[in-house]
Amino acid sequence: MNFGHTFGHAIEAATDYRRYLHGEAVALGMVMAADFSRELGLIDATAKQRIDGLLKRAGLPTEAPKIGASGRLR
Question: How many CA atoms lie within 13 A of 62 on its CB side?
Answer without folding.
Answer: 14
